[in-house]
Predict the structure.
Amino acid sequence: MTDVPGGLPETITKYRRAIARQMEDYVCRRDGPLHEMIRYHMGFEEGANSPGLQGKVLRPSLLLFTAEGFGVNWRKALPAAVSLELVHNFSLVHDDIQDDDYLRRGRKSVQAKWGAKQAINAGDGIRDLSTLALVELADSTDPGLTLNAMETLGTYSLEMISGQVRDLQFTDRAEITMEDYLGMIDKKTCALLKASLHLGGLYAGVDQETVKRLKAIGRYLGYVFQIRDDWLGIWGEQEQFGKSVGSDLQERKRSFPVVYALGRPSGEELEKFEEIYFSDGDLSGGEIDRVRKLLEELGAREGTNDWAGRYWKQAKEELAKIDMKDWAKTDLRNFGKYLLTRQR
């Protein structure tokens, strides 16, 4: 397994073309103002300037990878992969409204082009398309599998939304413990990664014990992904990360490094950090630099990496207990290493 330059490992990206082709065919079947917004968000605009399917397409690729890793033709699970990616994208449209973001993947967000009210409709439409995709694209000879997949994905989608509710609640809370933070990302971030591996196993027909371990791997990979993302949001190289480094601090988010620092023993560095971070008004560039330095002095930079490594170790322990193809285990281990050290 090799790394695609500047991007995801090749094993994960190899399904992208098939996913993009199936999604474009499905999403572009419908006309009207609602579907114009949906096509725009997905990157399927009409004309030569259409950018094509946006994002890493990580979750549906992991789903297909998991199915193939258990010896099943991955195309059997393609309807679930399309549905999963649509669930992820409906959440992005709504996230942009809630976070008041006007850019998504380097382009205007749906709310920037059509307003927040219409963006709500677009997100709702994408969510309904995700359910319909499972029905309309599925193998009609196995309705039980389709129903099971719908129930499974719906459960994880609801879990993801509950995590978003917790995340928004954190902005009004003075104290966030590590337990609070991990409980939130277990739902908001980990839910669809758990769904990826769970659905892949479902289409492969694995037993319940294996499903349990796949869900655990998804949870640990979700922790690694989000903790690393929080680290990059403070110490990443902006040219590689592709997002505004330091914006999490500007917005005073309770990201992992911040929660880690707030849990350290009281001292001069912690008191100074709290004084600046919880002050009124916008933080200046100099104050952001000072906050970053204080986080380093409180051990948050290395501590964040240590916690991510700890969860990756737990994921490997679960993976060792699964009867998966040897090549798939090797590739999944390499993928975990990528998540642990990624720069974007």
The two ends are 19 Å apart (CA to CA). Residues 1-6 have pLDDT under 50 and may be disordered.
